[in-house]
Amino acid sequence: MPDSMRLIHSELTSPEALAKATEKACDLMEEIYSKGMYPKMIVHREYSEHNPKIKGELAQPKAFRWYLLREMNRLLSKNADIEITASRPVIPLNDPKLLDHTDEEEWDFTKKKMFLFSPERTDISLNRLSHYTGTDPCDFQRYILFTNYAMHVEVFLDKYPDCVKPARDGVQMPAYHHKLPDNKGLTLINIGVGPSNAKTITDHVCVLRPDAMVMVGHCGGLRNHQEIGDFVLASSYYRDDKVLDELFPIGNPVIPNYLLNIYLKEVLDNHGLKHRIGPVYTTANRNWEFSAKDTVQKIHQSRSLAIDMESSTVATNGFRYRVPHATLLCVSDKPLHGKPKLSEAAQTFYQNSKEMHLQIVIETIEMVKDSYPDGLPNSSIRAFNEPLMGGGEE
C-alpha cells in the first residue's frame, strides 16, 4: 500500500467506486498508525471561500472507522477532494510531552479545525476507556446507554446474551456491547453513582463520536401527582452538580435532543406509560435531604420534576462535545412527600420496572435508526467554528 493517497471526487463516478475508495483510505490510515505515525487528512474544498484547505491529524482510526467512512463519503459527495498521508511520530502515552497536545481549550478561531479532538487526546481517552470499561474501544457502538444499576445490565444480558462483555472482573464502569454491522448496535455502560463518574466516562466516550447518548436512570419525583414507577423525560436541566461549571459556564443553556425526546415520548405513549416532561435537577449531594432548604428553593424556582445525580452532567458533556443526548428517568422515591428510598420498597420497585425501562430506550433507538440511519441531525449543538469532521459538516 502506498504511503499516501488522494481521493478525487470527480473520479469516483459510482457509489461502488466511492465506497471502495473510502475503505482503502481507512485501511491506509490504520496502517500509518500501526507503523507509529499519526495519519493526516487534508480536505480540499474549492467551493469554500474562507477554508478551501483544512487538515488535521488523528489517532486510532480503527476505533471509529464507521464514522470516518461516513464523513468522508459526505465530503466527497459535496465535491471535496481528500488526501491521506503520514504526519509525525506518535507520542507515547508515558511521554511528558503528551499533555502539551491534549488541551482542548487551545483553538485558533481564525482557522477551521478538521477534528474536534487532537490525536493525543484521542489516544489517552481510548486507553482510559479500555481501563474503565474492560472492553476494546473498537467494540463500542454508535448508540450509548448509561445506567448506574446492575439490574439494567442483567436485562441487557438477557436480551443480548452474545454481547461483548468486560475482559476482566472488577472494572470501574463495565461496558456491554450488542454489536451490529457498521457499529449500529447498542453499548450499555454501568457508570456507577454520581456526576464525577458521569463526567469521566463521557469525556472519553465522546471521542468515539457516537450518534446518541441516553441516560437511563432513577430519580426522586418532586411533584404531588407523580407516583413511584412514573417516567420523566428531561426538557432541560438544573445544573447543581458543579463538576463542569469551570469548563462550561452555568449560564449556557443545555437541552436534550428534540428528536430523541419525541421518539421517547412516542414509545412511552405506545405502551400507555405515565410520564411527565420538564426540568431535571442534578445534584452532587446524595444526602441533600439533610440540609434541604436551599435545594428545595431551587427546585421550586426551576419547576423541576425530578432530582438525580448524573443527568445534567451527561447532557452538558453531550452538548460540549456535539453528541445528541437525552434522559429517561423512572421515579423510584418521592423525598418531599414522605416516600424516601428505603431498601425493601426500592428492591421491589427495581424488579418491577427494570425490563420496561430499558425496553423503552431500545425501541426508541430502533426508531431513530429507521428514520436517521446516518445519525441524528445535530444543528442544535453545532457552533459557528465547528470542526469540519463533526457530523453534518458544512
Task: Write the SSE topology.
Blueprint: E1 5-7, H1 15-34, E2 37-44, E3 53-57, H2 65-77, E4 81-89, H3 119-133, E5 143-147, H4 150-159, E6 175-178, E7 186-190, H5 195-205, E8 212-221, E9 231-240, H6 258-270, E10 275-283, H7 292-302, E11 306-308, H8 311-320, E12 325-333, H9 343-371
Parallel strand pairs: 5-7, 5-8, 8-12, 9-10, 10-11
Antiparallel strand pairs: 1-4, 2-3, 2-4, 6-7, 8-11, 9-12
Helix pairs in contact: 1-2, 3-5, 4-9, 5-8, 6-9
The percent range for helix content is 25-40%
Oligomer: single chain
Low-confidence stretches: none
CATH topology of the largest domain: Rossmann fold
Helix/strand/pairing category? alpha/beta
Q: Strand percentage, roughly?
A: 15-25%
The Rg value, from CA coordinates, equals: 22 Å
Question: Distance between termini?
Answer: 31 Å
What's the CATH C level of the largest domain?
A: Alpha Beta
Can you walk me through this structure?
By secondary structure, this protein is α/β, with parallel strands linked by helices. The chain has helices spanning 15-34, 65-77, 119-133, 150-159, 195-205, 258-270, 292-302, 311-320, 343-371; strands at residues 5-7, 37-44, 53-57, 81-89, 143-147, 175-178, 186-190, 212-221, 231-240, 275-283, 306-308, 325-333. It has 2 domains: 5-103, no CATH class; 134-373, Rossmann fold (3-Layer(aba) Sandwich), CATH 3.40.50.1580. Helix content is 34%, strand content 20%. The strands form 2 sheets. A 5-stranded mixed barrel has the order 8-11-10-9-12. The longest helix has 29 residues, at 343-371.
